[in-house]
Amino acid sequence: MSNIKTLRKSILSGRTTAVSAVEESLKKIKSESDLNCWINIYEKESLEKASEIDEKIKKGENPGKLGGIPIAIKDNMLVKGMKTTNASAMLKDYVSPYTATVVEKLSSEGAVIIGKTNMDEFAMGSSGETSAFGVTRNPVDTERSPGGSSSGSAAAVAAGHVPASLGSDTGGSIRQPAAFCGIVGMKPTYGVVSRYGISPFASSLDQAGPLAATVEDTAAILEVIAGYDRMDSTSIKREVPCYAENIEGSIEGVKIGIPSEYMQEGTETAVRERVLAAAGILEKLGAEIKEISLPLTKYAVSVYYIIAPAEASANLARLDGIKYGLSADSGKDFLSDVTASRTEGFGSEVKRRIMLGTYVLSSGYYEDYYIKAQKARTLIKNEFSEAFKIVDLIFAPTSPTTAFGLGEKTGDILKMYLSDVFTISANLAGIPALNLPVGLDSKNLPVGAQFMGNYLSEELIFRVARALEKEIKSSEKQ
Amino acid sequence: MDKKTIEKIMHLARIELTDDEKQEIPSQMEKIINYIDNLNTLDTSGVLKGEAVFLKEMMLQPDRVETFPDIGLLTENAPSFSEGFFKVKKVL
């Protein structure tokens, strides 16, 4: 499927219609259902919305910045009247009572919501394998994982079902699947995008963001979904920049640091090579590349796997089978019914994280684990602030490996958790980060590199990523 | 991680484990806890606790209760709701 910019031009000029764009998207989705990217497809509603857009264009009205563009939404975001399952048996029949702000914003700019994508259950997972609706396959190599937790959102874009999608990123859940599937994905600064109507996993880390085939499309989507929302108490009050409009420009003199901790033995050679080659291109474009050090990187996984499960155990406590969600009858008393509902509703990974979170918050362990992790998080945040006094951006691998095989890491949970090592620091610090495909390894699997920037530096990230993307694409053509 | 600790956590979390999970989850948790213990080598003395990621642009707003417009849509998801109450088994 064409990118947003091209498709928008074609729709506006009458070369194609929004209805044909949606039909093409639906056809592709149906013919590739074996990828299992989708949980719900809104066939009727999306065709209706598309024909409304076509009517508007015919009448000479403005169809919006995303008029007629098919977009996929991760199934942890509410769309009123439609199911939001979080890929969990717990919420398999849950009907959304209202619409998430991000979805409202997309719709009001004319985007057509094609449906909801598969994901790791409650966004807990790094491989797309914990979904109660089955694993998602990587369109690049269907025997491999598309990454997670926004597995379906990444796979649907990479397979060309839609030009763009929304995902959410608590510890890398947009960037790592984007890296594994060879597309662009951005986690904005914490607070740039409203969390209202997005199921909470770890509220102090969660941030929604776009996935798309190009940097420009990613910027175009962020421009629409960003902005202050009084329904989210950590929303940032600030005018939204014109991300897509300001994307082209020189990167002369931009200082970019490569952290040595991300380029050591644990990172596959091919990944290191591609990242260094990309750094060489940035240098050629006028950027100043220097090696930096982020020594606290080795603590990031520990801090994350204390804070995220702790917040998750509190957030998921609301799922008790009383107000909504799966309700089981234990045949005994009220509390046994609550336990039975949670036992039946949650998959193993969710149970593991709730238990881990309960443990680190329990009396006797709270100070040693939770408070210790909070303090370490402050140190990690300070380390980034110091780094951004020396450099404008940080450039590093998004993941230590390319896409791993399905089932390869499910037996070793610690190994699975360690695959998040390079993405979680940005969530802990609250800074923006974007994955860009920077080439292939020897098995033709995409290698992803990420730009991390200081708070609210999205515009700079987009400009530098766009410059690099353009060079990489033109060298591929030669 | 002994059996008693696991049972205490299961109780606090209102979760039971299947037989397969009982074989796996406690040992996996132990492995993770052993790993995160590397935090003990990090000196955090002098660091204030709980300094989360809040920017000055994140504004405080009045703590005001507003009525959700479609209460019916919220309660439609409840397994048992009548006369303004969520119905459960006898509590006392």
Structure report:
Chain A has about 475 residues and is of the alpha/beta class. Chain A has a single domain (about 1-478), classed as Amidase signature (AS) domain (Amidase signature (AS) enzymes). Chain A contains 15 helices and eleven strands. Chain A has an eleven-stranded mixed β-sheet with strand order 1-3-2-4-6-5-10-11-9-7-8, with helices on both faces. Chain A starts with a helix and ends with a helix. Chain B has a domain at about 5-40. A two-stranded antiparallel ribbon of chain B has the order 1-2. Chain B has helices spanning about 5-15, 20-35, 70-75; strands at about 80, 85. Chain B is built from three helices and two strands; from the N terminus they run αααββ. At the A-B interface, α9, α10, α11, α12 and α13 of A face α1 and α2 of B.
Provide tags for this entry:
heterodimer, A: 478 residues, alpha/beta, Amidase signature (AS) enzymes, 11-stranded mixed sheet, 11 strands, B: 92 residues, mainly alpha, two-stranded antiparallel ribbon, 3 helices, 2 strands, flat
Describe the structure concisely for a colleague.
The complex is a heterodimer of chains A (478) and B (92). Chain A is an alpha/beta fold.
- Put simply, the count of helices of chain B is 3
How large, in whole angstroms, is the Cα Rg of chain A?
A: 21 Å
Derived from helix and strand composition plus strand pairing, the structural class of chain A reads alpha/beta
Describe the global form of chain A.
globular
The quaternary organization reads as heterodimer
Number of domains of chain A: 1
- Low-confidence blocks of residues of chain A: none
Number of contiguous helices of chain A: 15
Q: What string, H for helix and E for strand, traces the elements of chain A in order?
A: HHEHEHEHEHEEHEHEHHHHEHHEEH
Find the biggest chain interface.
A-B, 70 and 54 residues
Question: What distance lies between the first and last C-alpha atoms of chain A, to the nearest angstrom?
Answer: 23 Å
Helix content of chain A: 40-55%
Major beta-sheet overview of chain A? 11 strands, mixed
Based on DSSP secondary structure assignment, what is the total number of beta strands of chain A? 11
* CATH fold title of chain A: Amidase signature (AS) enzymes
Return the CATH class of chain A: Alpha Beta
